[in-house]
């Protein structure tokens, strides 16, 4: 929760992240009264522009479908100002300091939050300049960073070492915006607040767990960043792994952030590094109808790129609860639809009276259209004893009329370390072995052709009803 008398500085205020996530999220918090009234927001970036131009940009980042939202946006803009400056010069940060002091005149405290919507190459110099020139004399200071937190275990630790002389762990917030998604937070309540899930949440009843992330668009101009990282670093090592740890962890002592993180780290420590034999990778090609370009046709992507835009991999947890249960992660760009979901597939019911009836599944649809549903066998109404798959369906939009969904949450340093440890051998193996070429799949398809055989080989059984 933000204290009163807080200044939020968004560094990189003219970039893609600020446009797509940071400003819309700040505005969402403002609209839902989660921001103290006297909060001030300062945009900082290299682009030279005046205050009016900056506000015009902020307004263009945010959709205003109603008059009411348009008016709130006007009010929100009154809290925003802009400073342009470099990321590597004390003079620039001294300017920022001066601007903050102006704004903070008359305040009891000076609480400052620095949100780094910046490319990783400038994280370290900016964090040093901020400490030197802009650290508040009283009140709290926080520095918020977004992934990529390095590219592997070594570079992640290097980043951490570089931040440490200036910022304590309490001051550093590593954001993972998936942790703020409503359905991701709901995992804990579903699991620990319902006896019937709690009792079956283990290797005796669950056959496999699938976590799927699909996007219907390619890199579209973001290829420069993406090509250096690839889909595994972009969404799997962070967002999907975070979802996995919430699904797999033991019951925390409380819902406090620290207690939850303690349990998450324990799960990660019980996970061996991912074996290349449990991984497939793909890269999208031109769509079948020829209208959408292949990954390598993006001008920002090197022509010989081996970067995966799709991956599916199986992870295991070596503990009493999960030993032997495959956690199947799937993620890809330029696929047939937008969908993030968790699918828990239960084991087959004992045979005998039934022949091959579908398995129970618990599905948590993270986005779009949040919902939780259970696929359940029922008797087809009528004289026979025929079974039919039915759904117990909780669709949020139908059940909750007023959805207020803020987005954000944070990852602790030891969690980050443990997750990189698990992914690093695989990432190095893929980077170093030039003969490993991702499998092609058409833009707009479900992914590489081998995908269904791959998931089936780990026990997943496809049944018609989604
Ligand atoms: C970001 C990735 O972290 O998450 C993007 O860098 C991805 O590649 C995005 O598109 C997805 O976020 P959301 O909230 O739109 O699902």
UniProtKB/TrEMBL annotation:
Catalysed reaction per UniProt? D-glucose 6-phosphate + NADP(+) = 6-phospho-D-glucono-1,5-lactone + NADPH + H(+)
Give, as in the UniProt entry, the pathway in which the protein acts: Carbohydrate degradation; pentose phosphate pathway; D-ribulose 5-phosphate from D-glucose 6-phosphate (oxidative stage): step 1/3
Q: Which UniProt keywords apply?
A: Carbohydrate metabolism, Glucose metabolism, NADP, Oxidoreductase
Reported EC number(s) for this entry are: 1.1.1.49
Give the superkingdom in one word.
Eukaryota
Q: Which GO terms describe its cellular component?
A: cytosol
- Xref: InterPro entries: G6P_DH, G6P_DH_AS, G6P_DH_C, G6P_DH_NAD-bd, NAD(P)-bd_dom_sf
GO function term, MF aspect, one:
NADP binding
Pfam families listed in its UniProt record: G6PD_C (PF02781), G6PD_N (PF00479)
The Glucose-6-phosphate dehydrogenase C-terminal domain, residue ranges: 188-462
Name the top EC class. Answer: oxidoreductase
Glucose-6-phosphate dehydrogenase NAD-binding domain residues are 9-186
Instruction: Give one GO biological process term.
Output: glucose metabolic process
Give the family from UniProt. Answer: Belongs to the glucose-6-phosphate dehydrogenase family.
Role, per record: Catalyzes the rate-limiting step of the oxidative pentose-phosphate pathway, which represents a route for the dissimilation of carbohydrates besides glycolysis. The main function of this enzyme is to provide reducing power (NADPH) and pentose phosphates for fatty acid and nucleic acid synthesis.
Report the NCBIfam families cross-referenced here: zwf
| Designated name of the protein | Glucose-6-phosphate 1-dehydrogenase
Q: What is the species of this protein?
A: Friedmanniomyces simplex
């Amino acid at each position: 929760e933000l204290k009163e008398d807080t200044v939020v500085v968004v560094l990189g205020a003219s970039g893609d992240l600020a446009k797509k996530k940071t400003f819309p999220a700040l505005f969402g918090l403002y609209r839902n009264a989660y921001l103290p009234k006297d909060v001030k927001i300062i945009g900082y970036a290299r682009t030279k522009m005046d205050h009016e131009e900056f506000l015009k940009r902020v307004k263009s980042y945010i959709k205003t479908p109603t008059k009411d939202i348009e008016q709130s946006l006007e009010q929100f803009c009154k809290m925003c100002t802009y400073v342009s400056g470099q990321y590597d010069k004390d003079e620039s940060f001294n300017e920022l300091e001066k601007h903050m002091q102006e704004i903070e005149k008359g305040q009891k405290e000076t609480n400052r939050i620095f949100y780094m919507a910046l490319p990783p190459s400038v994280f370290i110099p900016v964090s040093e300049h901020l400490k030197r020139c802009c650290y508040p004399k009283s009140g709290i200071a926080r520095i918020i960073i977004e992934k990529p937190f390095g590219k592997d275990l070594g570079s992640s630790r290097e980043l951490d070492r570089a931040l440490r002389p200036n910022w304590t762990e309490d001051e550093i917030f590593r954001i993972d915006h998936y942790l703020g998604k409503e359905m991701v937070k709901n995992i804990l309540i579903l699991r620990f607040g319902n006896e019937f899930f709690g009792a079956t949440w283990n290797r005796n009843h669950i056959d496999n767990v699938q976590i799927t992330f699909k996007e219907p668009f390619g890199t579209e101009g973001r290829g420069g960043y993406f090509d250096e990282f690839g889909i595994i670093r972009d969404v799997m090592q962070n967002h999907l792994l975070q979802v996995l740890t919430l699904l797999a962890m033991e019951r925390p002592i409380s819902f406090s952030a620290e207690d939850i993180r303690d349990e998450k780290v324990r799960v990660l420590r019980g996970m061996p590094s991912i074996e290349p034999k449990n991984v497939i990778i793909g890269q999208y090609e031109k769509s079948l109808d020829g209208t959408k370009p292949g990954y390598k046709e993006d001008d920002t992507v090197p022509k010989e790129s081996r970067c995966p835009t799709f991956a599916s991999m199986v992870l295991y947890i070596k503990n009493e609860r999960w030993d032997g249960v495959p956690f199947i992660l799937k993620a890809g760009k330029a696929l047939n639809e937008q969908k993030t979901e968790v699918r828990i597939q239960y084991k087959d019911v004992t045979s005998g009276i039934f022949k091959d009836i579908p398995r129970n599944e618990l599905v948590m649809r993270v986005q779009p259209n949040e919902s939780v549903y259970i696929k359940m066998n029922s008797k087809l109404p009528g004289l026979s004893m025929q079974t039919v798959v039915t759904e117990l369906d909780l669709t949020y939009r139908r059940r909750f009329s007023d959805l207020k969904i803020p987005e954000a949450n944070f990852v602790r340093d030891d969690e980050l370390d443990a997750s990189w440890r698990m992914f690093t051998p695989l990432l190095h193996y893929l980077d170093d072995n030039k003969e490993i070429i991702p499998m092609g799949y058409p833009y707009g398809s479900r992914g590489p052709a081998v995908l269904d055989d791959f998931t089936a080989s780990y026990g997943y059984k496809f049944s018609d009803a989604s």
